[in-house]
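Exercise 7. Given the components listed, write out the predicted structure of the assembled complex. Treat all entries as one system.
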Amino acid sequence: MSFLQIENLTKKYKVEHESFVGVDNVSLTINRGDFLSIVGHSGSGKTTLVSIIGGILKPTSGRVLLEGTDICTLNDKKLSEYRVNRIGFMFQFASLLPILTARENVLLPSVFTPGKNVTDERTAVDLLEMLGIGEKIDSYPSQLSGGQQRRVAIARALLNKPDIILADEPTGDLDEDTEAEIMSLFEKINKKHGVTIILITHNLEVAGKAQKQFRMSKGQFVHI
Amino acid sequence: MAQISFFSVALKNLKRKTFRTGVLVFAIALLVSLLIFAISFTVSVASSLKKSSDRLGADLVVIPVGARGFAEEFLLESKSASFYMPISVIEKVKKIEGIKDLTYQTYLSSISGLCCDVPPTRIIAFDPKTDFIIKPWLLKALGRPLEAGEAIAGAVTSENLGLGLLDVEATIFENRFKIVGVLEKTGTGLDKALFMTEENLKNIIASGKSPLKNGEISIIFTKLEKGYDPDYVGKVLEGEIPEVDVMARSDMGAKFINTLADINKIFLLTTVMASVLTTFLVWAIFSAIANERSKEIGIMRALGAKESHIVHLYIIEVTVLGLLGSTIGVLAGTYLAVQLAGSFSLLKNISAGLTATQQTTIALIGLLVGMTICITGAMMPINRIKKMEPLLVIKEE
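Answer.
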């Protein structure tokens, strides 16, 4: 049984009587510990695909099987459990809550999985230290640089020891040095912790750091 | 290190825009204080009237024809009034079917300097043989009946006369009286009077300083036999004895009750309008919050928050707001009700006041209404928040 199996996935949107195809009959098999990147222009369907894998968007048809379980059929409760326990999200922007400190932002997923707060507190601090921002744990996002904010977001994605990290343009607005730092962190996380990483980017150089590269256009994979 | 929870996130959210939070708390506090004041006012007047008429212990009150207003003023508002009828009326009343017991009183007002060495005071003379109005209070205060040449003061009269010490003497209508005690506070018009027996009246009448003549009384209190309808007996009384008017216990304070009904309508209208406005304000602010925080909500959903978690978070926010606003409103409303009571003649004249149970109940009603309005106003935006598609709001710029 494959770790993650995407079968004939299609997502159609309807905007004012007009239909758009976000993802068009896509199939893909991903193994545990894979580090893959998906490149493509804006509107090519990469974010839609990753959102369906992450359980924040329902497909029109097709299946996403994680270790044999079709996540597309899960109800809100089960889907939330799937997201909190198995998926680590990183978005195009830093996506930190401005009212929370770095430590609190990392701990945010633990609010939705009560019962292990003390362990999470230690893990959050360890993760921030591991990512080189241990001295910033009580700083608010507005007091952090773009790179530091990304590190906090990575720490948050790792808090619940996810099986998969879904990173949507995680280095989008960063300078070259910070981008390189973040990418080396992804490589380290992938190698050291065996976490499967699916990275979306416009940047071919960034995409080249992944073990497997895919390109999307008009909702389909091309030149795999 | 403080742990993160729904509550701490909700509190941080509220602190994010303190002015907006303050406006909302102020609006809720304003509404609740208005409500508390209105209920306190109404309940205070209504319960004081009921307490006063109940404590008199009479089913029917017989007064000279046309003296109904004076009698209500004397008994409920503690105003001085002189109204008299012949003592022979007592015998006529006794003959009416259904009358079980009766007693009578005679009212006088002292005039400082002219007749008396005490400030103007309402004087109530009662018949100790038949009395059932003063007796319970008198026995409690004195433990024996009043003797000739003795008077006993109501709780408020005692303060007005400056009777710090008992057994002081006073001249009333050129007669020396020994004031032998103070009655326990009753919360009725009885508190603002000086009591003496009918026997003492003879000397007062003899002095020629009072408007009272021999053979005159002011009021007759009657108790009915079991099973007799006060309204029916009252009508028979008025029919048989044309020189009297009759008030049933439930009719006492009709003037106040009518005024109160009008005031209640104004209070109701104002409170309903304020409630609608506050609900709309809560709705508008939470709609703005939903728009402002849509991306954050999308992120939380992506991080594993269920729809119920989002609702939980915002319910905590709205509950904290509601509780804070309502508590301030309860305190402000209670303070206003107490402070402004003296400014309303309706309250000033009838020894109005609320018991601790009444005050607690009114406070709870205020809290409940404040909370309900907050949750009602916020419910629609919260429902919209929880239904947001995470991807769409995350991608929204």
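Discussion: Chain A is about 35% helix and 30% strand. The first helix of chain A runs from residue 46 to 53.
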